[in-house]
Design a protein that fits this description.
With 268 residues, the protein is an alpha+beta fold. Helix content is 25%, strand content 38%. It has 2 domains: 4-56 and 159-237, no CATH class; 58-73 and 84-150 and 251-266, no CATH class. Strands 1, 2, 3, 4, 5, 6, 7, 8, 9, 10, 11 and 12 form a 12-stranded antiparallel sheet that branches. The longest helix has 18 residues, at 4-21. This is Lipoprotein. Residues 100-119 are annotated as: Disordered. Residues 103-115 have a biased composition (Low complexity). It holds the Pfam family DUF7537.
Length: 268
């Protein structure tokens, strides 16, 4: 019987490509039905599947006292426009300080979507806009940077364990991790399922799909990467890649940002 987790991955990919291309909202339920029909009698996990036993990282990170989370998206749409989005979270829980940085660009030019949020001494400071036209704000209170940061990890959210194969150990950020990759059978299932919906407006046929997760000895996902290439019904090439990285566990420090004085002056 086909793995339901592979179906979940298929739906995620269909929705992501539909969102990037600006359509395809009605194709998701059809994608599930077509993928299930096409894979009937098969095992979506495939031979060699031995997925990670993931744990909730919140307790580990709070015990460690500090960490850094980075999330990256890079995509090229059917018009050849390259979009990049970055989210970085630096947290020193022991010192009750954190810094969140968000930026985005199109074809290498900032699209004005940059912002930073700094928390220290029970106050949250915010900076938005470009360096030449920054806007500042502040308010008493703090943000749940732990929940926000680890929420960017998709490994536990989509529960794809049965579709992942153990590829051995390696070192990431100075820590021994086990590498898991989406099985070839599940990758092919995703491609076949996307082909069934590629006739819908705004939905691309996935021609290649990869998913990697690096897990440490505590069962915490340290790195994740999703990547795909595809083509629209008109034959235009599209691609996308998402990366999540958890680093500096127990060693991250958070300094005052350069704009803090300006923020304090603007909100005094």
């Amino acid at each position: 019987m086909q793995s339901s987790r592979a179906i979940t991955l298929l739906l995620v990919v269909v929705m992501l490509t539909a969102g990037c291309l600006g359509g395809g909202g009605g194709a998701v339920s059809d994608a599930m039905a077509d993928a299930e029909a096409g894979a009937a009698g098969g095992d979506g996990a495939g031979p060699g599947a031995d997925g990670p036993d993931l744990t909730n990282p919140e307790t580990v990170l709070r015990d460690a006292g500090s960490f850094t989370v980075s999330w990256r998206y890079t995509g090229v749409d059917e018009s050849g426009v390259r979009t990049e989005v970055h989210h970085d979270y630096y947290a020193d829980l022991d010192a009750e300080r954190s810094l969140s940085v968000t930026s985005s660009s199109r074809d290498g030019q900032s699209d004005g979507g940059s912002s930073e949020q700094f928390v220290a001494d029970g106050t949250t400071y915010i900076r938005t806009g470009s360096a030449d036209a920054a806007t500042y704000g502040s308010y008493p209170g703090t943000a749940d940077v732990v929940g926000t940061a680890i929420g960017l990890s998709q490994a536990r959210a989509y529960g794809t364990n049965d579709d992942m194969a153990n590829r051995g150990t390696e070192t990431f950020d100075g820590v021994t991790v086990t590498r898991y990759e989406l099985t070839e059978a599940s990758s092919q299932l995703i491609q076949a399922g996307s082909a069934a919906t590629s006739g819908s407006a705004g939905v691309a046929e996935i021609t290649d799909f990869h998913y990697v997760v690096l897990v440490d000895e505590n069962g915490v996902s340290r790195y994740e990467s999703w990547s795909f290439t595809g083509r629209t019904q008109e034959g235009q090439q599209v691609s996308g890649e998402w990366e999540y990285a958890l680093t500096g566990v127990g060693s991250t420090t958070v300094d005052d940002p350069e704009w803090l004085a300006a923020a304090r002056a603007a909100t005094a």
